[in-house]
Amino acid sequence: MTEDEANSESLMDRQTTGEDRVRMVAQQLSEPRTANWIASEADWSHEPTKRVLRRLVDDGILHRDETGTHTTYYPDYRRQAIQEAMRLRDSDHTVEELTDRLAEMKAQIRDWEDEFDVESPNQLRGTLANETLGSDEEDRRREIAQAWEHLQWRIEIVGFAIREWDFLAPKTESPEVSSV
């Protein structure tokens, strides 16, 4: 560990509580995780982590899934998508720039579809059964399939931000209250 890394770690430890770290970890989840995993990532003990996770579930920020062998927690992906769309709207990007980025992402997916003659990330993963592929090519296809899924998610969010550009605009005045 470099001196800079050590300094930034100690700064994080000094400026965040265990609860803060659990909240940060939990809100950045991209797949369901157990309380133990979240506690480990947040560098905090298990029982207090579970209490924070229960509150996050009660507040509608996380969902709890008890159907498997272990209880897992995952964020409300709709909430994440809307928050990301709001961040895009509030950023320095124009709607034209986001539209260009959307076109680039879709073109990338079309390129992969043409290159591998497949229509989805899972179909690309299915090509790994081809015995003539070397390990480097297998790794490349796995990485592309993962990137493809990420791009599909980003396309949805960027498309939503573009479609709802006016609605997502920050309001400078409080809305009029109507008695409907």
From TrEMBL:
InterPro entries to which the protein is assigned, alphabetical: DUF7342, WH_DNA-bd_sf
SUPFAM superfamilies: Winged helix' DNA-binding domain
Superkingdom classification of source: Archaea
A Pfam entry, by short name: DUF7342
Residues covered by region (Disordered): 1-20
Keywords associated with the record: Coiled coil
Coiled coil: 88-115
Protein name: HTH domain protein
Organism for this UniProt entry: Halovenus salina
